[in-house]
Design brief:
Blueprint (H helix, E strand, L loop, with lengths): L13 E5 L17 E2 L3 E18 L6 E17 L4 H7 L6 E3 L8 E3 L8 E9 L5 E14 L12 E7 L11 E4 L6
Antiparallel strand pairs: 1-2, 1-7, 3-4, 4-9, 5-6, 7-8, 8-9, 8-10
Length: about 190
């Protein structure tokens, strides 16, 4: 048995988005150009919520449950983004396109995107320190942004964009949301 306290995980995760169908990198590979790193989060980091709701069944006059039936399952990934570049902000708000306007005489250079509601799905990769002394990652082939909070610009505190992603069923693997992968050894 290992004497290293690897199971004590310390550190924050990095969240990447890509188009649905994008191949996930191996846990020891740097995500490719098709993956957008959403940048740093606030001190709360990234939360993965495994929601499982069950209905208890009782037999006869017994007050003790005899069985539980899974009635609902959800996977949620929530975070507060603090590095709000126009590109990251546009990615979160329905994968909008950022347009760059060059500076000219009397006109400042700008980068902008149109705020148009949509229903975009992404592949989501969450990578962070793992329990086996190496990195781990969650691979969700299909997620959608189900909630984004308000952006507050305030004196004395950082501006954050709170977001909540909902994982959808992996159409390539029915009955599953995705994969958790913890690296256990270096590739030979």
């Amino acid at each position: 048995m290992s004497v290293e306290p690897y199971e004590l995980i310390v550190g924050v995760g990095q969240v990447y988005l890509a188009a649905v169908g994008t191949t996930f990198p191996d846990v020891d590979e740097t995500p490719g150009a098709s993956w957008t790193n959403l940048g740093s989060t606030d001190d709360d980091g990234v939360t993965v919520n495994h929601v499982r709701e069950r209905e208890l069944h009782y037999k006869g006059n017994s007050t003790l449950p005899q069985k539980a039936t899974l009635t609902e399952a959800r996977e949620e990934v929530s975070l507060n983004l603090v590095e709000l570049t126009p590109e990251r902000y546009a990615k979160i708000l329905d994968d909008a396109t950022v347009t760059t306007v060059a500076a000219e005489s009397g006109t400042p250079g700008t980068r902008y995107f149109r705020i148009v509601p949509g229903d975009v799905q992404f592949a989501l990769l969450l990578r962070g320190p793992g329990p086996l002394g190496y990195d781990m990652q969650y691979e969700y082939p299909r997620v959608g942004l189900v909630e984004q909070g308000e952006v507050q610009y305030q004196k004395g505190d950082k501006t954050v964009l709170p977001v909540l992603f909902q994982a959808f069923e992996d159409t390539s693997n029915p009955g599953r949301f995705g994969t958790y992968r913890a690296m256990s050894a270096v590739a030979l």
